[in-house]
Specification:
Elements: H1 3-6, E1 11-15, H2 21-31, E2 35-39, H3 42-48, E3 53-59, H4 68-75, E4 85-89, H5 98-106, E5 113-117, H6 122-156, H7 160-172, H8 174-234, H9 241-266, E6 274-276, H10 278-284, H11 286-293, E7 297-303, E8 310-312, H12 314-330, E9 336-347, H13 349-353, E10 361-370, H14 377-380, H15 400-410, E11 414-420, E12 424-432, E13 455-459, H16 463-475, E14 479-483, H17 486-494, E15 501-505, H18 513-523, E16 529-533, E17 550-554, H19 559-570
Parallel strand pairs: 1-2, 1-3, 3-4, 4-5, 7-9, 13-14, 13-15, 15-16, 16-17
Antiparallel strand pairs: 6-8, 9-10, 10-12, 11-12
Length: about 575
């Protein structure tokens, strides 16, 4: 590779006017092997903004200086070039969070930027700069690729006489013309696929990085609390253990919530979709929503009394509405009005063609709106991306709208977002309308009663989960038999041993849980079966997965939830409807 090519996109420009900020950042980047250049102001940045520049690091304070030269330099960039900026936002008190204030300052001159809130770790800064340099490298690769395509097309751009001669030749050989067109079309397709693959890999990197960051925080809370409890128990100090138990449980529940959102986004959660009285469900959330938004935000609910039932999973719909409520609350820091409404609409084929992800049909619509800060049009295209958020660093996972989108898609509906800066945002969830009038509503179960020694076969490949289920069964009065997979369970099922219930993981190695259930029913046709699932593609919609006298519970679950499910399937006469 020529020396000039090796230096493209290698330099990082730094502009930080106060103290030793610039030199500190430059020193950190140089130690990491980057070529760092300190600029006195934005005008100096503009002068040096050429091909060797791979990224620009700015502190928020420098954005208060003259930006005309920088704006002109950025406008003069070729179409393929979009130099990435990393903005270090200052922490402040005021109506706008630090990160959002920095976004407002930089967004009117720069399109490609990342905002990091100070103080921040060296690892975070190096990670952001590394991502920016990789993005810049892809720009140069795309420039070279476009240049190659342009050069090929210049074989085609001949003079009029040459083209006339070419037309005569092509007229005599029509097959040759078709081959050339097909070749050019294939080249363009490969170029588009290459760009799409690059964008997809960047999105995967953002997704895995965000997951690792959030799970590390949650695992710290769990492991740290357990370590402290172990030390105190070993030294005979039992006071205050509840505090650490609560901290570990809170972190574990947050991890469970994040996992559920990821499954919703990937459309692999286990949905129990059925006809639901949507007005009754939304109305029952009134008190919870009011407590969530606080006293400075008014709650306005309007429920259309003539809507049909909607087909949905009640628990997932409640979670989606709560997520949208939290987003709306955060968009109204000075107060405002949260509006929650229901309605119905028929989408014909012509309307569906103009609505992404929509299918023709009759829908029940739940709308959650606010009169808060709103979003710019360029942000609306990103709202369903995983880990995309307009909130400051550390506030929100960026999975809320992704979860709502995945849930609606998996449920057979879709989501629309309408937002105007300064006026607010409205999110509409479209649920398929029920074709029949009978409406199933969920009914809460009491604390699980004690068993009477019934024998339960537990089939689970994870030893920790198998141990937990066995202990829960014995705790509430059942007798447990264990099997680590389907092959180990079959001899037990084929024996003369009395078995009152089988609890099986869906995702077993080899023979999966549903296949094991079919095998078990050949010998024991009336055997009740409870499936346990954490992720199972084929079990995503329960109504199409479960057979007679079968039920399902989703990991992670509380001990009470498991006990209630067991009692419900063994003693269904005590329960009208199981959600």
């Amino acid at each position: 590779m020529p020396d000039s090519e090796a230096t493209l996109g290698h330099t990082v420009l730094i502009a930080a006017p106060y103290g030793r900020d610039a030199e500190s950042v430059a020193s950190l980047l140089r130690r990491a092997g980057h070529d760092a250049t300190v600029c006195a102001d934005l005008t100096a940045v503009a002068r040096l903004l050429d091909d060797p520049v791979g990224a620009v690091v700015l502190t928020e304070e420098v954005l208060s200086t003259d930006r005309c030269a920088l704006r002109a330099a950025l406008d003069a960039q070729p179409a393929w070039s979009d130099v990435p900026f990393v903005v270090l936002a200052a922490r402040r008190m005021g109506p706008l969070p630090a990160g959002q204030a920095a976004v407002l300052r930089i967004s009117d001159i720069v399109d490609n930027f990342t905002v990091l809130e100070r103080p921040l770790s060296a690892a975070s800064l190096l990670s952001a700069v590394g991502s920016a340099l990789r993005s810049r490298k892809k720009q140069f690769e795309m420039r070279d690729h476009l240049a190659e395509i342009s050069a090929r097309n210049a074989a085609l751009a001949r003079s009029e006489d040459e083209l006339r001669q070419a037309r005569d030749v092509l007229a005599r050989n029509h097959d040759q013309l078709e081959a050339i067109v097909a070749e050019r079309t294939e080249e363009l397709r490969r170029a588009q696929e290459h760009l799409h693959q690059s964008q997809k890999m960047e999105a995967v990197g953002q997704l895995t990085g965000g997951i690792a960051h959030d799970f590390n925080n949650m695992l710290t809370g769990i492991i740290g609390s357990m370590d402290i409890m172990r030390r105190r128990i070993a030294s005979g100090r039992f006071e205050g253990l509840e505090r650490y138990m609560d901290a570990a449980t809170t972190s574990a529940n947050r991890a469970a919530g994040l996992t559920q959102r990821l499954l919703a986004f990937s459309r692999r959660q286990s949905l129990d979709s059925k006809p639901v009285d949507v007005n009754k469900l939304v109305g029952s959330l009134g008190d919870l929503l009011a407590r969530t938004i606080g006293e400075q935000i008014a709650l306005d609910m309007w429920l259309d009394p003539v809507i049909p039932a909607g087909i949905t999973d009640p628990n997932q719909l409640e979670s989606a509405i709560l997520n949208l409520t939290i987003n709306a609350r955060d968009a109204m820091p000075e107060g405002g009005t949260l509006s929650v409404s229901t309605g119905s609409v028929t989408i014909d084929p012509a309307d569906a063609a103009n609505m992404p992800d929509a299918e023709p049909g009759h829908y029940v619509v739940v709308t959650v709106g606010d009169n808060g800060v709103g979003m710019a049009p360029e942000l609306l295209d990103k709202v369903f991306e995983p880990f995309f958020t307009t909130k400051p660093l550390g506030q929100g996972t960026g999975l809320g709208l992704s979860m709502v989108y995945g849930f609606a898609q998996q449920n057979g509906g879709h989501v629309t977002v309408d937002s105007t800066p300064g006026k607010g945002t409205a999110v509409c969830i479209y649920l398929p309308a029920a074709a029949r009038a009978d409406i199933v509503t969920s009914q809460s179960l009491p604390t699980a009663p004690q068993g009477a020694g019934q024998r339960v076969l537990v089939v689970e490949d994870d030893p920790a989960v198998r141990l937990l289920i066995r202990d829960v069964l014995e705790e509430v009065g059942y007798a447990a038999i264990e099997a680590c997979d389907g092959q180990a369970a079959i001899p037990i099922l084929e024996s003369d041993l009395i078995i009152d219930l089988m609890i099986s993981d869906v995702g077993l190695p080899g023979m999966n849980g549903r296949q094991l259930a079919d095998t078990a029913r050949l010998r024991r046709p009336d055997l009740p079966i409870l499936f346990v699932t954490g992720y199972a593609e084929n079990a995503a919609i329960r109504s199409g997965f479960l057979g007679t006298n079968m039920a399902m519970i989703t990991k992670p679950f509380s001990l009470d939830d498991l006990g209630q499910k067991i009692d419900a399937i063994l003693a269904p006469e005590r329960v009208q409807t199981i959600s």
